[in-house]
Write a structure and sequence with these properties.
single chain, alpha/beta, Rossmann fold, six-stranded mixed β-sheet, four-stranded antiparallel β-sheet, about 25% strand, globular, ABC_transporter-like_ATP-bd, AAA+_ATPase
């Protein structure tokens, strides 16, 4: 892995019996980059991410995340990343404050750090009136904002976001992406999966997966030029038709 590559993937493959969910993919992600991992539902995005965050072993191939081998150093990988899924990122029966304290403890933060980071998060998100509310009572958009902030508690080098804006309204989606940009500007690498093709426009580079393979990888601008279209949604549709 080069100094500026926070993720390095070489011929990564995942099979379930005779079914190949992720088929020989290779790519790199640089420090501070917002990297979009796009594809329709079932394309293999989440399966690939699970290998990168150390919770699923590759069948073949290799990958390093934050300098650690995902196959032999999975625990070190987990300590150096943040992770947020579309569901189950927070405990609905705990308050916002209680979730922060709980995950801060899991991440190994001291009581003083947890207290300081809790107050900073509440101030930054403007949650003073809701800090003692159960997470389950929050609108989905607020849940996702809090979950993203909690994933950053331990200052990870990389944050993996799996379909983070699924089901939220357009305004909240835009606000969420503003939070992503803020962290990327601080040097945090963002790896985000989505099936919303318009969100590809927000990424520095995107890969497009189709049936377990990466069929295109470049900046949104270059991909639109390559496929001679005006939007990333058109890129995806044209790519899918060409494969068919």
């Amino acid at each position: 892995m080069t100094k500026d590559n926070m993720i390095q993937v070489q011929n990564l493959t995942k099979m379930f019996g005779d079914f190949t969910a992720v088929n020989n993919i290779s790519f790199e992600v640089e420090k501070g980059e917002v990297f979009g991992f796009l594809g329709a539902n079932g394309a293999g995005k989440t399966t690939a991410m699970k290998m990168l965050i150390g919770i699923s072993k590759p069948t073949h191939g290799a990958a390093t995340v934050a300098g650690y081998n995902v196959l032999t150093e999975a625990e070190q990988v987990k300590r150096n990343i943040g992770y947020m899924s579309q569901r189950f990122s927070l405990y609905n029966d705990l308050t916002i404050k209680e979730n922060i304290v709980f995950f801060g403890g899991i991440y190994g933060l001291s009581s003083a750090d947890i207290k300081e980071k809790s107050q900073a998060m509440i101030n930054e998100l403007g949650l003073h009136d809701m800090a003692d509310s159960l997470v389950g009572s929050l609108p989905l958009g607020w849940k996702q904002k809090v979950a993203f902030s909690v994933a950053l508690l331990h200052n990870p080098k990389i944050v993996f976001l799996d379909e983070p804006t699924g089901g939220v309204d357009p305004i909240t989606r835009r606000q969420f992406w503003e939070m992503i940009y803020m962290e990327a500007n601080r040097g945090v690498t963002i790896f985000v999966t989505t099936h919303y093709m318009d969100e590809a426009e927000y990424c520095d580079r995107v890969s497009i997966m189709v049936a377990g393979k990466i069929e295109a990888l470049d900046t949104p601008k270059n991909l639109k030029r390559q496929f001679q279209v005006d939007s990333m949604n058109q890129v995806f549709l044209k790519l899918a038709r060409n494969i068919e």
